[in-house]
Recover the amino acids of this structure.
C-alpha cells in the first residue's frame, strides 16, 4: 500500500509535556512518527513532525482530537498532508 | 529530499499569518445542450445539469481544504453565456432563468454563479438583446448570479451601440438596487477581450471553446508577497522582482496542487490556473500596500505604473513556471473597494480615476469596483467603458469595467457593499459630457493590431 504522509505542526507557548501529549494522541490513532524536530525561540515553541497516516481513514477526526488538545494547552496544532509542502518547496 | 523545519514553518506562516489562500475553485459547466424551444423544459434542464455536476463541489473543496490546511475562500460556478441559449425567450423568461441559476447556486452552497452573459463585440443577436434587457432586474432579484457583457475585442473593434446600451443598463441596475447602494452593478462586468476560462467573479463564464465541464482555480496572496518584500527593505528593483517571482511560484504550486486534487476527486478535468494577485479587505492583504512597500508613499503617486508593471510581470514569470496550464486573467487585480490600500489612496487624494485608468494599461484587468456619484449620466459611464475598451483593444489585453453609480451619493462619501465586495469611496468623474460621442453609435473598426495573419 502507498504510504500517505502528513505534517503535524505545533506552535505556541512552551510548557512541560507538549510532545508527550501530542504523541499520545498520535499513538492512540495508530499514527507512526517518521521524523520530529523542535525549536524554541524566546519562549515560542514550534514542533514539526512528519507522520505516516496511511492507516487513518479520516484526517478530520485526528485534527478534531488535536484541536481539542490545542485549545486546552493554548497551542495551535495542525495536521496537513505532506504533498502541499512538497509542491511549494520542491521542484 | 525531506522537507526541512524552516520550509514547513514558511508554509504555515504564509497560511496563518499572511493570508495565503486559494481564492476560488470555479467549476465551468456547459449549458449548450439545455437549449429548448419549450421554456419550462429548458429552465428545468439548466437546474438539473448544474446541480448534477456541481453536487459535491462544496463538500469536496472543503474536505481538501481541511486535509491540506490551505483555505479555499470561494466555491463558484461558471456557465455558458446564457444569451447563447435564450433563442426566442422573452425578457421575463430570461429573468426567470437568472432566478433558476440563483436557486441552483443557493442549493449547492456555492458563493457565486457567473455566466448571465452576452458576447456582442461585433453585433447583437435576438438572444443577446433579450439578455442585456433583462440584466438590471435579473441582478436585482438574485443574490449570487453575476453578469458580464463583451463589447469589444482586438479582432472585431468596439461595438459602440453596445457600449451606449451598457451605460443605460448600469444606471438602471443601480436605480433598481438603490436601497443597497446600487449593489446590482457590483455583479456586472463590461469586457473588452474577455477570456473563456476566467475563474474570478463577476466576469466568469464558460466560453464557447470549453468542454462539457472543467475546474479552474484562482489563487490569491498579496499578503504573502507583501510580507516577503518587507523582509528585503534594501533590495534593488531587480531583486524585488526576484523575491516576488519566488513567492508567487510557491503560491501557485500550492494552488495547482489543490486544484488538481479537487478536480480529481470530482472526476472532472483540471482546466487552468489563474495567476492573479487578488486583494481582500483583510489586514495587509492589499496590492496597493505592495506598491507602497516597493517605495511609493501612497499608491497613485508618480511611479505607481512602473511599480505595478514590475510587480505584475514578476507575478506572471513566477507563476508561469509553477503551473502547467496558466490561463484566465493572470495578472494583478486593482479593485478599489476590496483593497484597503487603494481605499486609503483615494481618501487621501493620491489615487484618482484617471490614474486607475492608466494603471489598467499594465495589469489585468480594468476599472474594478469603482463607486461614482449617483447622478453620473449614462453617456459618461459609456465614455468610461469606451476608454477602457480602447486600452484593451489596442494593447491586445483584457480590460473590464465594474462601476457603481451609487444612487444619492456624492463624491467623497463612503459606501458599504459588504462581504468580499468591501467598501468604496465615491470617486469624482470628469464633469464634461461625452454625450455626442456616445450617441453617434456604430462600431469602432478593428485596429491594425488585428491584422496579424
Amino acid at each position: 500500500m502507498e504510504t500517505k504522509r502528513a505534517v503535524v505542526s505545533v506552535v505556541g507557548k512552551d510548557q512541560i509535556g507538549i510532545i508527550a501529549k501530542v504523541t499520545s494522541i498520535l499513538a492512540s490513532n495508530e499514527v507512526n512518527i517518521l521524523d520530529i524536530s523542535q525549536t524554541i525561540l524566546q519562549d515560542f515553541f514550534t514542533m514539526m513532525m512528519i507522520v505516516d497516516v496511511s492507516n487513518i481513514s479520516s484526517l478530520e477526526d485526528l485534527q478534531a482530537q488535536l484541536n481539542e488538545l490545542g485549545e486546552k494547552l493554548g497551542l495551535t496544532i495542525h495536521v496537513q498532508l505532506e504533498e502541499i509542502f512538497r509542491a511549494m518547496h520542491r521542484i | 529530499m525531506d522537507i526541512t523545519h524552516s520550509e514547513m514553518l514558511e508554509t504555515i506562516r504564509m497560511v496563518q499569518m499572511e493570508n495565503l489562500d486559494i481564492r476560488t475553485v470555479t467549476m465551468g459547466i456547459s449549458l449548450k445542450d439545455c437549449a429548448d424551444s419549450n421554456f419550462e423544459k429548458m429552465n428545468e434542464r439548466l437546474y438539473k445539469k448544474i446541480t448534477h455536476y456541481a453536487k459535491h463541489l462544496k463538500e469536496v473543496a472543503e474536505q481538501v481544504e481541511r486535509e491540506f490546511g490551505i483555505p479555499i475562500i470561494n466555491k463558484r460556478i461558471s456557465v455558458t453565456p446564457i444569451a447563447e441559449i435564450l433563442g426566442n425567450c422573452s425578457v421575463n423568461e430570461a429573468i426567470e432563468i437568472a432566478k433558476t441559476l440563483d436557486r441552483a447556486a443557493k442549493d449547492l452552497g456555492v458563493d457565486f454563479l457567473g455566466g448571465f452573459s452576452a458576447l456582442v463585440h461585433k453585433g447583437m443577436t435576438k438572444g443577446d438583446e433579450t439578455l442585456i434587457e433583462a440584466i438590471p432586474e435579473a441582478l436585482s432579484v438574485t443574490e449570487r448570479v453575476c453578469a458580464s457583457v463583451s463589447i469589444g475585442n482586438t479582432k472585431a473593434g468596439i461595438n459602440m451601440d453596445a457600449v451606449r446600451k451598457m451605460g443605460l443598463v448600469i444606471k438602471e441596475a443601480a436605480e433598481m438596487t438603490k436601497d443597497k447602494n446600487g449593489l446590482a452593478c457590483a455583479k456586472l462586468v463590461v469586457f473588452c477581450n474577455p477570456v473563456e476560462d476566467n475563474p474570478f467573479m463577476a466576469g466568469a463564464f464558460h466560453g464557447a471553446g470549453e468542454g462539457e465541464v472543467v475546474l479552474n482555480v484562482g489563487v490569491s496572496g498579496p499578503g504573502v508577497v507583501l510580507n516577503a518584500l518587507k523582509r528585503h527593505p534594501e533590495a534593488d528593483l531587480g531583486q524585488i522582482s526576484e523575491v516576488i517571482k519566488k513567492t508567487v511560484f510557491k503560491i501557485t504550486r500550492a494552488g495547482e496542487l489543490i486544484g488538481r486534487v479537487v478536480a480529481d476527486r470530482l472526476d472532472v478535468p483540471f482546466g487552468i490556473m489563474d495567476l492573479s494577485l487578488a486583494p481582500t479587505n483583510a489586514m495587509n492583504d492589499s496590492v496597493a500596500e505592495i506598491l507602497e512597500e516597493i517605495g511609493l508613499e501612497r499608491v497613485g503617486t508618480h511611479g505607481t505604473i512602473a511599480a505595478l508593471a514590475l510587480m505584475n510581470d514578476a507575478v506572471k514569470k513566477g507563476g508561469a513556471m509553477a503551473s502547467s496550464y496558466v490561463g484566465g486573467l493572470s495578472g494583478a487585480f486593482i479593485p478599489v473597494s476590496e483593497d484597503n490600500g487603494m481605499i486609503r489612496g483615494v481618501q487621501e487624494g493620491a489615487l484618482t480615476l484617471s490614474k486607475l485608468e492608466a494603471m489598467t494599461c499594465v495589469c489585468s484587468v480594468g476599472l474594478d469596483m469603482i463607486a461614482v456619484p449617483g447622478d453620473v449620466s449614462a453617456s459618461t459611464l459609456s465614455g468610461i467603458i469606451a476608454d477602457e475598451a480602447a486600452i484593451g483593444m489596442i494593447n491586445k489585453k483584457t480590460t473590464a469595467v465594474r462601476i457603481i453609480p451609487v444612487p444619492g451619493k456624492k463624491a467623497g462619501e463612503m459606501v458599504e457593499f459588504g462581504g468580499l465586495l468591501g467598501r468604496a469611496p465615491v470617486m469624482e468623474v470628469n464633469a464634461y459630457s461625452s454625450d455626442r460621442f456616445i450617441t453617434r453609435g456604430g462600431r469602432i473598426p478593428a485596429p491594425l493590431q488585428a491584422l496579424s495573419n
Notes: The mean pLDDT of chain A is 89. The first helix of chain A runs from residue 18 to 28. Chain A has one domain: 5-89.
